[in-house]
Amino acid sequence: MAAMAARSADTVVVVGLGVIGLSTALALARRGVRVVGVDRFGSGDARTSSTGLSRSIRVAYAIPEYARLATEALDRWAQLEARGTRPIMHLTGQVDLAAPATLAGLAGGLGAAGAAYEELGAADIRRRLPGIVVGDDATGIFHPRAGTVVADAGMAALASAAVAAGAELRAPEGVVAVEAAAGGVRVTTGAGTIAADRAVIAAGPWTGELVGPLGLDLPLAPALAQVTYFDVPELVGMPAIAEWGADDGGGVYGHPVPGVGYKLGFDAAGDDPWNPEAAPAPDPAEQERLEGWARERLPGLAGRALRSDRHPWTMTPDGDFTIGSLGPITIAAGCSGHAFKFGPALGELVADTSDGTPRPAAAMFALDRPALAGPAPAPSTPINR
Ligand SMILES: Cc1cc2nc3c(=O)[nH]c(=O)nc-3n(C[C@H](O)[C@H](O)[C@H](O)COP(=O)(O)OP(=O)(O)OC[C@H]3O[C@@H](n4cnc5c(N)ncnc54)[C@H](O)[C@@H]3O)c2cc1C
Q1: In ligand 1, which atom is closest to the CA atom of 269?
Q2: What pLDDT score does 127 carry?
Q3: Does the structural domain 11-49+153-220+317-373 have CATH classification 3.50.50.60?
Q4: How confident is the model at residue 2 (pLDDT cuts 50, 70, 90)?
Q5: Does the pLDDT at position 12 exceed 50?
Q6: 90-148+221-314 is classed in which CATH architecture?
Q7: Which residues does residue 196 pair with via DSSP β-bridges, in sequence order?
Q8: pTM for the full model?
Q9: Whose CA is nearest to atom 25 of ligand 1?
Q10: Which of 238, 283, 279, 281 is nearest to 265 (CA)?
Q11: Main-chain phi, psi angles of 272, to 5 degrees
Q12: CA 322 / ligand 1 centre spacing (Å)
């Protein structure tokens, strides 16, 4: 093993360079901190959560803190897009189909964030989503601050901005242990030991194995979620969609994917066990079930499925993220299937948490909140945010 590196002032090691770790590395580096980011596989590897072409983004959250965080994220993604060469956002708006009580919650969050929305009856839904099949009693809302994050472009932009701000990003290099040490932390990797002032553990589904030795037994449930791409380039200008409560309550979401067409997925993972070492193979039965939904709701997609991809996410018991510090070690995990959109805004929040700067929005992510005192949820628990 390499000799222990000399420690310089105000160094933070970021363990895991998915969207949360990269965003945190960027935020910290911009604050003048020396950042060393380390990833076992490399950002965006097919075994991780932050992989693939696209993610949905929306301000419409019933919890105002999320709506405000999404608004900040939209601005920060736009700034990253402006300094690069690839489009990161494709905002065509989103139509949410749901019962009036659910829509009222989403409208409340949009209102709190100062975002526009329009209430829809069945005729308006058909106008906004040409080809959709809904009953005459259908209700929905349309909100324009929504659509698609081009995920691979976003990841590349975060990495290049972090490096430009001075961060050192290392991969592939696995971290074996993160420990508090005199006046700071000691991070042991496959290549040696890094002495630093602080560490941030943003290891996605692998977080449990790194925080367990710190005495933290977090109820995190890694799970395998699938999405299906459809070869319908003519629909690339269509709004995103969310049908809350579809598929026996789990829900279905979708959005346009530039260069491909449209993507759909269930708001719940399957029950198959997660294998930390392997990229998951797609499940043809889940694709067939999703195509069944498309045949009923968006028949223009029928017979146009291109392929499905399956990746891990990490559910918490309440669907909220897990962000907090144990002394000099900050944990940022429990993405609950909906964290990508918040990337650069979450990075600032995690950096504030590591710096010890109070953020009221961080309370709902706290490590000592009651929901984290109970058991882990079933992996197939639907996203409820
Ligand atoms: C199919 C699917 C669809 C989704 N759709 C949406 C969506 O539409 N909108 C949305 O907002 N979100 C969506 N999400 C959720 C979003 O992608 C995740 O919340 C987000 O990517 C989580 O990022 P992360 O950084 O926490 O985890 P990861 O991306 O998994 O990053 C963790 C990193 O840690 C590294 N690592 C692990 N162990 C170690 C170690 N010991 N040493 C060093 N490095 C280590 C890994 O290699 C990995 O790169 C979706 C997720 C999936 C799977």
Answers
A1: 1
A2: 98
A3: yes
A4: very low
A5: yes
A6: 2-Layer Sandwich (3.30)
A7: 185
A8: 0.97
A9: 18
A10: 283
A11: -60, 145
A12: 13
